[in-house]
Amino acid sequence: MLKRMALFLATNLAVLALASVVMSILGVNPNQFSGLIVMAAIFGFGGSIISLLMSKWVAKRFTGAQVIEQPRNEGEQWLLSTVRRQAQAAGIGMPEVAVYDAPEINAFATGANRNNALVAVSTGLLRAMNRDEAEAVLGHEVSHVANGDMVTMALLQGVLNTFVIVLARIVGRVIDGYMGGNRDEGPGFGYYAIVFVLEMVFGVFASMIAMWFSRHREFRADAGGAKLAGRDKMVAALERLSLTYGESTLPKQVAAFGISGGTSHGLKRLFLSHPPLEERIAALRNARLDEHAVRQGVVA
C-alpha cells in the first residue's frame, strides 16, 4: 500500500512538473493555471478512483457473475480450494470466487485492493479447459491481484486523464490567443472547440500508453500463473486459448483484466489490452530456457 501511495504522489508531481515545462515553452504564466491543475487532478483521478472502488459491483452487475458462497458441486469446491491455495501462496487475502455465464473461454480479476478482490471464470472456460489449464488461468488472475494491477491501472489512468485535461487547455489557450490576435477578453467559442478536439487527440495517445502498460502487466501475470500452477500448465492454457478463443463478452470496465483480449494487427495493435497469445507463449518458453541455462551454468 505504501508503494501505491508513493506512486500516486510521484505521478501527481510528474504531471505538475510536465505542465510547468509545457507552459514555460509556450510562454504561459503558470499562476494563471493553478486552478486548472487542481481541477484537472480532481476530475482526472476522481473518475479513476471511483471506477476502481466500484469495480467489483460493476463486474458482478454487467457479467451476472454469481459468487460461490457455499459450493453446490465438486467443481465449485475445486474452484474455491484452488483459489484459496494460490491466494495463500501469493500472500493476499482470499478473493471472492464467482462464475458467470458466457460462451467464450475467459476469466477476470478485479477489486479495489489485493485483500478484497474478485476472481471470476466463465462457464465456457469450465466446459472447454481441463483442470490443469483452468488452474493456470486462476493463477494468472490471482497474480493480477497480488501484483496490484487494478490499483496501478487506476493510478495510471488518473495521471493520463489529468495530463489530457491540462495540456488540452494550455495548448487550446495558446492557439485561441494566436487566432484571436492575443485579445484580452476571455476565451470564446473557438477555444472550447479547440479544447474538445485536443482532448480527443491527446486521449488517443493516452489510451495507447495505458494499453502498452496493460500488455506489459499481462506478461507479469503469465509469469505469476506459471509460478503458482506450473509453467507447462500456463503454456497449455494459453495454447488452448489460441485455438478456441472467441470475441470477449466482458464489459469494457473489466475487459482489460480478462485472460485474453483478442488479436489485431497494424496500428490497431497499439490499442490492445493484451499482447498476442503467441508472444505470451514464447515469453514463457524463453523464460524456461533461460532458467535451464542458468541451472546448467551453476552445475557446470
Report on this model:
This protein has 300 residues and is α+β, with helices and mostly antiparallel strands. 69% of the residues lie in helices and 6% in strands. It has 11 helices and 4 strands, in the order αααβαβββααααααα. β3 and β4 form a beta hairpin. α1 runs parallel beside α7 and α8 packs across α9.
Query: What is the arithmetic mean of pLDDT?
Result: 81
| SS-based class | alpha+beta
User: Order of strands across the biggest sheet?
Assistant: 1-2-4-3
What's the overall geometry? elongated
Short description:
The chain is α+β, with helices and mostly antiparallel strands and 300 residues long.
Write the layout of secondary structure elements.
Elements: H1 2-26, H2 34-53, H3 55-63, E1 66-67, H4 74-90, E2 96-100, E3 107-111, E4 117-122, H5 123-128, H6 131-146, H7 149-179, H8 189-229, H9 231-244, H10 252-255, H11 277-299
Parallel strand pairs: 2-4
Antiparallel strand pairs: 1-2, 3-4
Helix pairs in contact: 1-7, 2-7, 4-6, 6-8, 6-9, 7-8, 8-9, 9-11
Features of this protein?
about 300 residues, alpha+beta, four-stranded mixed beta sheet, 11 helices, about 70% helix, disordered N terminus
